[in-house]
């Protein structure tokens, strides 16, 4: 497989682009470069829709999340439309004058998506944008990437994955430093801390990310799916067990043993499980 791609658009949106490579990769791009790819509720609804499309498309094996242009991956919530109780969108909830906190749903969706998600980061990954790269499975950073949280400066915080998963990823002291001081860190520092998987020259960013995607596309999709669920399970409590157990159910459905139970029910006879070993 070649490591350059001709992307085809699948569906048009206002704030994002959703494209596929034709050989197993979906690319989701936050396209609001005028605000360093900050997200508003509209952006998040569209991202949720695109991730659902990527999940349900059986020809897609790896998803890339990125931001438009070289200056930013994402700068978090759009502060210009932040109301007094959350972000104000154009949806039904906002029409009643009530804000929303919906980036958390997107974070969960990325973690539960049963395919590897790679954050492809050029420029700033800041605030809620930093948490978005964090919840992706892998991060490939351009050499101009800059990482940080701004919450205590702008009056917000993410005490869920933004704090807990960050501490799991780079250690508690460093995670507290990032949140308590609101400094920015360059790509090399992020790499040394284990916050990103690789740093490459900006002009090689997409080529390198696609190379990583192609390597994963050569591997077993179910093994990757089970590994992703396994890495996340302990942190997710019963929801993590549910996802792993759901995968076990999917695999069991594929077995003759489970199919005997289904067939017996449909044929109105007693199931005969006698030929299936009671495995040690
Ligand atoms: C990204 C930064 C560092 C880039 O600096 P640079 O390159 O100097 O550019 P600027 O001149 O600052 O920016 C260019 C234009 O873009 C606008 N802009 C940038 N970021 C935003 C933004 N986040 N919102 C709105 N506009 C933005 C600038 O204003 C400028 O516009 P013009 O040219 O018109 O002046 C720098 O821009 C920066 O620091 N940005 C702000 C980063 C930030 O504080 N983000 C918000 C952090 N908070 C969150 O993300 C909330 C997370 C969240 O959603 C959440 C968390 C937990 C629980 C629930 C929720 C939830 O609400 O769902």
UniProtKB/TrEMBL annotation:
<dbReference type="InterPro" id="IPR018376">
    <property type="entry name" value="Enoyl-CoA_hyd/isom_CS"/>
</dbReference>
<keyword id="KW-0456">Lyase</keyword>
<feature type="binding site" description="in other chain">
    <location>
        <position position="156"/>
    </location>
    <ligand>
        <name>substrate</name>
    </ligand>
</feature>
<dbReference type="InterPro" id="IPR029045">
    <property type="entry name" value="ClpP/crotonase-like_dom_sf"/>
</dbReference>
<feature type="binding site" description="in other chain">
    <location>
        <begin position="124"/>
        <end position="128"/>
    </location>
    <ligand>
        <name>substrate</name>
    </ligand>
</feature>
<dbReference type="InterPro" id="IPR014748">
    <property type="entry name" value="Enoyl-CoA_hydra_C"/>
</dbReference>
<dbReference type="Pfam" id="PF00378">
    <property type="entry name" value="ECH_1"/>
</dbReference>
<feature type="site" description="Important for catalysis">
    <location>
        <position position="87"/>
    </location>
</feature>
<dbReference type="InterPro" id="IPR001753">
    <property type="entry name" value="Enoyl-CoA_hydra/iso"/>
</dbReference>
<feature type="binding site">
    <location>
        <position position="268"/>
    </location>
    <ligand>
        <name>substrate</name>
    </ligand>
</feature>
<dbReference type="GO" id="GO:0008935">
    <property type="term" value="F:1,4-dihydroxy-2-naphthoyl-CoA synthase activity"/>
</dbReference>
<comment type="function">
    <text>Converts o-succinylbenzoyl-CoA (OSB-CoA) to 1,4-dihydroxy-2-naphthoyl-CoA (DHNA-CoA).</text>
</comment>
<feature type="binding site" description="in other chain">
    <location>
        <position position="36"/>
    </location>
    <ligand>
        <name>substrate</name>
    </ligand>
</feature>
<feature type="region of interest" description="Disordered">
    <location>
        <begin position="260"/>
        <end position="280"/>
    </location>
</feature>
<comment type="pathway">
    <text>Quinol/quinone metabolism; 1,4-dihydroxy-2-naphthoate biosynthesis; 1,4-dihydroxy-2-naphthoate from chorismate: step 6/7.</text>
</comment>
<feature type="binding site" description="in other chain">
    <location>
        <begin position="75"/>
        <end position="79"/>
    </location>
    <ligand>
        <name>substrate</name>
    </ligand>
</feature>
<comment type="pathway">
    <text>Quinol/quinone metabolism; menaquinone biosynthesis.</text>
</comment>
<dbReference type="GO" id="GO:0005829">
    <property type="term" value="C:cytosol"/>
</dbReference>
<feature type="binding site">
    <location>
        <position position="253"/>
    </location>
    <ligand>
        <name>substrate</name>
    </ligand>
</feature>
<protein>
    <recommendedName>
        <fullName>1,4-dihydroxy-2-naphthoyl-CoA synthase</fullName>
        <ecNumber>4.1.3.36</ecNumber>
    </recommendedName>
</protein>
<feature type="binding site">
    <location>
        <begin position="149"/>
        <end position="151"/>
    </location>
    <ligand>
        <name>hydrogencarbonate</name>
    </ligand>
</feature>
<dbReference type="GO" id="GO:0009234">
    <property type="term" value="P:menaquinone biosynthetic process"/>
</dbReference>
<feature type="binding site" description="in other chain">
    <location>
        <position position="150"/>
    </location>
    <ligand>
        <name>substrate</name>
    </ligand>
</feature>
<dbReference type="InterPro" id="IPR010198">
    <property type="entry name" value="DHNA-CoA_synthase_MenB"/>
</dbReference>
<feature type="binding site" description="in other chain">
    <location>
        <position position="87"/>
    </location>
    <ligand>
        <name>substrate</name>
    </ligand>
</feature>
<keyword id="KW-0474">Menaquinone biosynthesis</keyword>
<comment type="similarity">
    <text>Belongs to the enoyl-CoA hydratase/isomerase family. MenB subfamily.</text>
</comment>
<feature type="site" description="Important for catalysis">
    <location>
        <position position="253"/>
    </location>
</feature>
